[in-house]
Amino acid sequence: xxxxxxxxxMRAVRQFIREPYAWPGGYPKTLLFADGQVCCADCAKENxxxxxxxxxxxxxxxxxVEAVQIFWEGPVEFCAHCECPIExxxxxxxxxxxxxxxxxxxNG
Length: 108
Ligand SMILES: [Zn+2]
Known about the structure:
This protein has one domain (6-86). Helix content is 26%, strand content 19%. The protein is built from 3 helices and 6 strands, in the order αβββααβββ. The protein has helices at residues 6-18, 41-46, 48-56; strands at residues 21-22, 27-33, 38-39, 65-70, 77-78, 85-86. The chain binds zinc ion. Zinc ion (ZN) is lined by residues 39-40, 42-43, 79, 81-82, 84. The site of zinc ion has 8 residues, from helix 2.
């Protein structure tokens, strides 16, 4: 397995910023960091310099890019930075239930 080079990774990041959805198909993409967090396109754009320097230096500062992936299926992920939800193309296959759960908690 060849590891992608810095240039390849950053090209993928720039593509992700320009086109957060894969074409054709409109599938959502996510930016995956080395620490397993994901990030939305807006944050990737805002923090492009950080992403670039962390990735270049192999610095685990939270912005080191692992890969840009198409987010096919799975539970909703949340951007590590702005916490906006990132939904997968096909949703969560393990979830049969309505996701409209009330988050009421009784402190008692
Ligand atoms: Zn974000």
